[in-house]
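[Solved] Which block belongs to which protein?

Original post:
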Amino acid sequence: MTTLTLAQLNAADGAEFVRLLDGTYEHSPWIAEAAFARRPAGGFVSLAQLKHALVEAVRAAPETAKIGLIRAHPELAGKAMVARTLTAESTGEQRRAGLTDCTPEEFAKLHVLNAEYNRRFGWPFILAVRGPRGTGLTRQQIIDTFERRAHGTRDFEFAECLRNIHRIAEIRLSEKFGQPPRRGEQVWDWAEQLAQHSEPGFAEAGQLTVTYLTEAHQACARQLMAWMQAGGFDEVTLDAVGNVVGVYHAAAAAGGAQAPRLLTGSHYDTVRNAGKYDGRLGILVPMAAVRELAQRGERLPVTLEVVGFAEEEGQRYRATFQGSSALTGHFNPAWLDQVDAQGVSMREAMHAAGLPGTIEAIAALQRKASRYLGFVEIHIEQGPVLNDLDVPLGLVTSINGSARYRGEFIGVASHAGTTPMDRRRDAATAVAELALYAEARASADETSVATVGVLEVPGGSVNVVPGRCRFSLDLRAPTNAQRNAMVMDIKQHAERIAKRRRVTLKLEETMIASAAPSNRRWMQRWEAAVRALGLPLHSLTSGAGHDAMKLHEVMPQAMLFVRGGNAGISHNPLESVTADDAELAVQAFTHLITHLEIAP
């Protein structure tokens, strides 16, 4: 097949433009026609920009056109495949996924699922069967996804079908242009290989769980070190808390090992039954960038320090950000005496892993902030925003500050049948009212969020007015001022509820964390990197905590989000990133580190 080039596409008139992109979208030349109208005056600067123009053409189309696009696609392992009437592109994709070799039982299952799905939604089920890596999902993965999505809402499925159509088109375009996402594929493959290390009890169930200093955790550290060493890092070490540290020295003209440093990285521990990209993406993307630089013999204007932080999630011990806290000088000595569920202290776990287990060794890890230009982190979004917008990369303006509370309303338990409504002192309805207020208060602030994640009536009974109701509050906002204002309003409203409903309020603060606004100069550098790819700039806040929050305490920081698939779900096995989006992250990071201007 002749490889298409952007130069050809940019030189083409409208009819030729549509012809060159034939087969990208199934039986829908109108999409290429609309993208041609969006072609920049100087032409498309990247394949990513072309892809986005095609996506935007579909987003701008009326619903009837979108439904027509969905219906232009064949059923999976359906009649058209059996009759050999699919397009060449669809035939190849279904063949790669093994759908042409279904067993009779699998074919019957898909036939039933197709019929039920069409009956419910009125269009065929669409799935990019070549998957996030581009090499194909298994038949079982396809069936599992089919069954899961068959229970979705109409609006979600409509959008999800279109997202999968764009993924199909993306893979086809990469092949038309002969531009496979090699670095993104490397990142994706590394994530898969790292996920082979999981703890007993989870590994047997095919689940990913890696908590601090377990055997699986230590295996991950050894694997990261081996990849860094093979990838051309000049120094690779395991420090006193288990952080994996790789250093790539600056060009000799810039000072070599003595040059100013840029710090980057993320964590490699996980929650229980986790996804494969939370944290780890922020280690693997810089590793892929360094690997390519080393292969080309290219050095940077700064020394790059990539850290795989040993702990961020707080799963084994009641401590979070242990890895990054050691670098900022904020590791709490009391953590060493904490014990896990098996009674093993952190100090003992460190000794078992071959680490010193002393506060002196950990204190020595503190970085001299004046030596660093800043900290940048790449992270999967862990939310639905970029996925909903069909945008692969997002600029993080701030990591939300948060406040958590444990609360309880205490009223009087009484007979549900004999206590008049105006005589009740119902603790549960007091919490319900507070939860609704918190929801409204956060919504009014747009970028803030409020959650009542725990609501418990001790000893509750169907025929008893609740006399006690325990609850939790999790309040987050992009700035400390916004968080504090929301906290004050919700606490004051809780007191008003207690007074009006004649119940007692108990409220205890259990955690407070400061917001971490991104440094403006580093944000501009990320913006330049995203703009160089021809992608739109979309800014958003992070509702989740990250290692960048800790580094923010001692140096400038800025984050880049990468779109997550499956509605952006995270801390879940369905967490997903495509090789193409990982490729864009590598390209953006490479642009950032190769275009730094360092003042003398």
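(Second protein starts here: sequence line, then its structure tokens.)
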Amino acid sequence: MEAWEKKVGQETVEEMKRDTKTAGRGEGQKNRIDYGISGIPFIAIVLLCFFFFIFPENSNRILSGIRNFLGTEFAVYYLGLGLFIFLLSLYISFSSYGDIVLGEPHEKPKYSFFTWGSMMFTAGLAADIMFYSFCEWILYVQEPYVQSLGRKEEWATAYTLFHWGLIPWGFYLVLAAAFGFMLHVRKRSKQRYSEACRPILKGKTDGIVGRGIDILAVFALLAGTATTFSVATPLMAEIMKKVLPGVSTRDLTLLILVLTCAVYTFSLLKGMMGISFLAKACTWLFYSLLLYIFFAGGAGNFILKHAFLALGKMVEHFPTMATYTDPMGENHFPENWTIFYWAYWMVWCVAAPFFIGSISKGRTIRQTILGGYGFGVGSTFVSFLVLGNYSLSLEVFHKLPVVQIYESSQSLYETIVKCLEVLPLAPLVLLLLLLTMFAFYATSFDSIALVASQYSYKSLAEGEEPGKKVQGFWAILLILLPLALVFSESSMVNLQSVSIIAAFPIGFVILLISFSFLKDAKKYMEEQKGTE
């Protein structure tokens, strides 16, 4: 077995050398592209979209049935997986695994902490985070389960932190450590999900099992990408209505998609320099918006006090929140919220952790995970505590009937805009929010397009970037499905259900990658001791 692994390692090195030599030649580039990995999931999603358009009611009923079945019958699977991955992240960080440098033993980080943290934070569901920060408490206070707990505003804020905090980012950071180890320590040339499973799958990685894992991963990536625009683009369109009142929401949404595509395509083709610049600019815009709302909103003291209280409540009740399954089926809160969020973050684990792992070269695994929690979770919490408590303060102090506005309009987007219009210089605030969300979407799709481009190659040498044509192809391709889905609201809902259903098998792959990393990292540490 050891001889076989040594042979595979030698073949991988030779393959990397051969691919690097042919990287600049058109024929070499063409032969290195794996059309099946990208093509099969894309065709499957296009067929699903066609089915959604032709049979919207039937498709919605079927997918909703599957989604509800998974949420009800496999609640322990989703919730248990989330809690396990979070605890695993702590174990990895504070054990000897945390000392491993993602690169050469004495290599220094390529990016400063702020640049690295900005790229990491904006690679995730950043635009969605901003949208939900304003309004998620509105949805929770109307939930029977939250109402039964008493002090529903406090519990609503605590649950926003729980659903966007430690466990979701735990998915990202454990996989980021695994992918970073695979890329920068083992220097694997196949930058794919299946390659991270090689320590356990061994030869099966190159067969139908590995192929299936990669096709599933790209399918989940495309589905998750196509649906994320359905969350926050309506808010952007609602803001743009203030400037262009005569334009329809559909046309404004199309304009937003096209402009976002243009920005992130330009940034992507500029390479990592363009991606890092856009990520830092986005982070500065984000914190500028938060600071203005905190100081100009007239609720700074309330924001601080309620934030402190909500953090304490979330920490105190974290084990109960993480394991609540509603066994009697009384309120369906876990299926509607906790399981939904865990599944949605699991689908996004295809792109974001790969990107985080690739930019973490030179950092230890401990720095990657704990730094990720510090910057990623910290920025997320600040967003929810400032924006959410600001809109909550309008309701609590009777400055604006926020819940009543939502109940009458049934539009979170309209409700958020009315909350912002209370602020001084409201038009400038709306413009700043619009620019920030544009930047967040652009930076998120930068990372996704880069990862998708890497997936298209049969192999890539360490430090080698995908060809510009391949990156440009994915930059355009990733926007086509959202453009098509703008014309059918039911299809948006359906494809989101597909993303959630796709998380069920992705969960098993996440476990496989985690245990493969532990096995390979342990072997690496033994090799290092032997060398010393």
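Accepted answer:
You had them paired correctly. Confirming on the second one: The longest helix spans residues 489-531.
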